[in-house]
Amino acid sequence: MEKKEIESRIKKVVAHVLKLDEEEITQDANFIFDLGADSMQSMLLIAAFEEEFDIEMDVEKAQEVQTIGGAVDFIAEYL
Amino acid sequence: MNHRGELHRKNLHTVFYPRSVAVIGTNKVRGSVPGDIFVNILQSGFQGIIYPVSPREKSIGGLKAYKYVIDIPDEVDLGVIVFPSSVCKLALEQCGQKGIKSVIIISAGFREVGEKGLAKEKELLEIAEQYGISFIGPNCLGVINTDPISRLNASFARKYPAEGNIAFLSQSGALCTAVLDYARAKNIGFSKFVSFGNKADISEIELLYYLMDDPKTKVILLYLEEISDGPGLMRAARDVIMKSHKPVLILKSGRTEEGASAAASHTGSLAGKDEICDAAFKQAGIIRCEDIEEMFNIAIAFVYQPYPEWKRVAIVTNAGGPGVLTTDAVVKEGLELARFSEKTTLSLKKSLPTTANIKNPVDVIGDARADRYVAAISAVFKDENVAGVFVILTPQSMTDIDSIAKEIARVADQFDKPVYTSFMGEADVASGIKILERNNIPHYILPESMCKPFHTVYNFNRFIHNEEPEVFVSGHPPNLVAKELLEKAIEENRKYLNEYDASLVLEAYRLPVVEKRMATSAGEAGKLAAEMGFPVVLKVISDDVFHKFDVGGVVLNISSETEAEESFRTITESVKEKMPGAKIRGVQVSKQIQNGVEVILGIKKDPSFGSVIMFGFGGIFVEIFRDVSFRVAPVGKSTALQMIREIKSSELLSGVRGTQLRDVDAIAEAIVKLSFLAIDCPQIKELDINPLIVLEEGRGCYVADAKIILEN
């Protein structure tokens, strides 16, 4: 899968979970600092990414991912 | 104080007195740390402007929220970061860009969670250094300033404390909330309340210096779990105590420890971390407390009442038993019961019933009402033999508790002497205790508990008025001979210096070492012994032998040339047999000093305080009774004399029961010289001079044996 497509699908998931407009979500946006995700939302995002891409991620490592761009690279490794 | 220290002192003012605060990473969730901190600042009546900074919210608590701190159009004095640890550096970076110089980082998840957390903490420090920021935390409860011109509660404590004159600093956040609750119940107020957490940037040292100049603070309480800069803490505390006359009380956890017994030298095994901590605090004038209760018991005595000028107290009680118990405690504490003047006795006689006891302790009898208490307290207060008054009350059916409490406060206000109280019981006396507390009369649940605070305040008063700055006269620049011997041994991977080399190091610092020479043959040993004069001692010298006695490497009381030759052979054969691999450099022939008293001196390097000097008596005094004293180097002569005087067996040097007066002055000089050796030679991990033989007054002392264990 192309990284551009991964990014687009990630942004959709993030917008849905965090209840944001997709336009607000940039590639270098930090989940916590820029998008305001709290710890519960971070866990929800991990679950939502797994469902979206039909993958099972290492949760501990997934929690270390901080930005949209980082999530793209991280998820790409599972695809 | 270094550059960062200076910066912190400047920036700390805006930690406590900001004109505006940004709470960075806050939210609307009550019961969460980010949410509650914002609400606490809002509800404490903060006198400045508050800016919520939240990536998601448009407004919080009716105030416009900003996505980033850099979006705030106005100047911001203080940033309070409540984001998770993973993004604190982004928040701190933006604080730097915004020009904020004072920051509190509440967030946890740093060094307390391990290596990764420590790395994050280092990143914060780098950013702080880049932008000239000073920060408190991370991993802390926050900061409270009750001064009405600020009224800042940048913490997630449940309650805002009352205004007072006690500053409380704590490394533990959880303890802070417990202390706030405890103090609230006892009507104790605070000037400043700081939880400094991991002290990654601002530590207790800078906070002490800040509080030294804080007019709202009269007493400083400090809870510490770890001392990272012992000498810095000692300097800061001493500066505060001597310059501002504010007492510094420290509760230091971790009194017990494992491992001291594994040390290689006597000094190493005796100088546990806690003993060193005790010595260092004493040296700096710090009052060390056993627990929170004792800390506040002492603090209220300092902050609410005048300091006693001397040690004699009067006890006024309506119950004989508690009066006697308190008398016992007074004597045990080292205080004295005042002997009343004739005028006082007459006055008490006139105003009290004939059944009352008019001697100290004054028993106003169980049916006493407020008038009798007033008469007795006034009379003893006026007595010039009385330095302070302990008032005890037990609740009888006719005891007008509240009136007595009010009258104690009224009378105490007329005298410049301290009064402490103990209304014994709980439910019946509760309202009276509240009256006392509201009137700043220290109250103690048990009457015996009045003694230690009284004595502590008395000692502190003496300390600040009598303590003279220590004069350090080394007279010797760092000595090259000693340095070369130590460095050579380290290059050769030796773990310790043998006695011969250790003596050379000590001689280089002009410590008096007994005359000694090295013999490499039996004939030479005999000849050297004869030249020296008998009796002599022979000892094996080998870099491989640490415990000479264990391998038969020592012969004492040698009284002839032939005996010296034989001893040489005995020693070398014994060592060869018991330690076949040991390389023998020779046998040391030294003069045996007679009619001396044996004491021990030592050095131990402590990770928190640096080199520490030990003094004690030799033999069983050190082995069994652990009767030793410590001080952090350098040690001046007056401190050295204190070290000698404070051990229990020091009288053995002062000519008691027919013994001779010993040369205490020479011991003190040896301690001073040893302390300079400790400062100059960081290669020394531990050192024992055991024994130092002390002769009669004016005849000096001599190092008879020494060991140096090297740092590696």
Uncertain regions spanning at least 5 consecutive residues of chain B = none
Number of helices, counting only DSSP H or I runs of 4 residues or more of chain A: 4
User: What's the N-to-C terminus distance of chain A?
Assistant: 7 Å
Briefly note the CATH topology name of the largest domain in chain B: Rossmann fold
Count the domains of chain B: 4
CATH class of chain A: Mainly Alpha
Mean pLDDT level of chain B: 92
Protein name (chain B): CoA-binding protein
Domain ATP-grasp (chain B): 503-539
InterPro entries (chain B): Acyl-CoA_Synth/Transferase, ATP-grasp, ATP_grasp_subdomain_1, CoA-bd, Ligase_CoA_dom, NAD(P)-bd_dom_sf, Succ_CoA_lig_flav_dom, Succinyl-CoA_synth-like
Keywords (chain B): ATP-binding, Ligase, Nucleotide-binding
Walkthrough of the structure:
- The complex is a heterodimer of chains A (79) and B (712).
- By secondary structure, chain A is mainly α.
- In chain A, 56% of the residues lie in helices and 0% in strands.
- Chain A has a single domain (3-76), classed as Orthogonal Bundle (Non-ribosomal Peptide Synthetase Peptidyl Carrier Protein, Chain A), CATH 1.10.1200.10.
- Chain A is built from four helices and no strands.
- The mean pLDDT of chain A is 94.
- Chain B folds into four domains: 3-253, Rossmann fold, CATH 3.40.50.720; 306-466, Succinyl-CoA synthetase domains (Rossmann fold, 3-Layer(aba) Sandwich); 515-592, Dna Ligase, domain 1 (2-Layer Sandwich); 597-710, D-amino Acid Aminotransferase, Chain A, domain 1.
- Chain B is 39% helix and 21% strand.
- Chain B has 23 helices and 30 strands.
- In chain B, the strands form six sheets. Chain B has a seven-stranded mixed beta sheet with strand order 9-8-11-10-12-13-14, sandwiched between helices. In chain B, strands 20, 25, 26, 27, 28, 29 and 30 form a seven-stranded antiparallel beta sheet that branches. A five-stranded parallel beta sheet of chain B has the order 2-1-5-6-7, sandwiched between helices.
- Chain B is flat and about 95 Å long.
- The mean pLDDT of chain B is 92.
- Chain A binds chain B through residues 18, 30, 32-36, 38-39, 64, 66, and chain B through 27, 29, 54-57, 67, 83-84, 86-87, 90-91.
- Chain A: Keywords: Cytoplasm, Fatty acid biosynthesis, Fatty acid metabolism, Lipid biosynthesis, Lipid metabolism, Phosphopantetheine, Phosphoprotein.
- Chain A: It comes from Mariniphaga sediminis.
- Chain A: Residues 4-79 form the Carrier domain.
- Chain A: This is Acyl carrier protein.
